[in-house]
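> forwarded from #structure-qc
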């Protein structure tokens, strides 16, 4: 049961990320925003894949995956909307902070000694490396985005 709680927390993070990136893409699908949209689309795809992987783990353990993003996801969308009004760099900073938070959550999950070997392997070989890649990508996008 402990594994399901850990997976549910990670799933909430990924659902929130998916919703937040969809919102960001809507904001950047404007004239002059194509570079940003093209850069963020693969990250959105990776978060959707993570959602599928985590949902499958919950089902395998006999649980029912949640579908909504909850309060945290709604808050993240509001913050992103506000940051988008301040400019592209502010919006990217919000996404970057979310990715770093998610990275920390995966690292924290790996400290759980009750974590199944299958879930540990999924986090170590797929989910955490993807999260770290997102941080690097957003750092590059930030560097290429005028203030």
């Amino acid at each position: 049961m402990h594994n399901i709680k850990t997976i549910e927390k990670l799933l909430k993070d990924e659902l929130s990320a998916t919703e937040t990136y969809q919102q960001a893409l809507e904001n950047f699908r404007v004239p002059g925003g194509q570079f940003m949209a093209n850069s963020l689309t693969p990250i959105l795809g990776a978060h959707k894949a993570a959602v599928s992987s985590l949902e499958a783990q919950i089902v395998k353990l006999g649980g029912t995956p949640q579908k909504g993003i909850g309060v945290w996801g709604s808050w993240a969308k509001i913050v992103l909307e506000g940051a988008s009004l301040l400019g592209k760099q502010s919006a990217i900073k919000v996404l970057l902070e979310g990715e770093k938070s998610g990275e920390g959550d995966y690292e924290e999950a790996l400290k759980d000694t009750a974590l199944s070997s299958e879930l540990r392997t999924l986090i170590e070989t797929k989910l955490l490396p993807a999260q770290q890649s997102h941080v690097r990508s957003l750092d590059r996008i930030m560097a290429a985005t005028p203030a």
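QC bot note: Residues 73 and 127 are 19 Å apart (CA to CA). Helices lie at 2-28, 34-60, 70-86, 88-110, 117-144.
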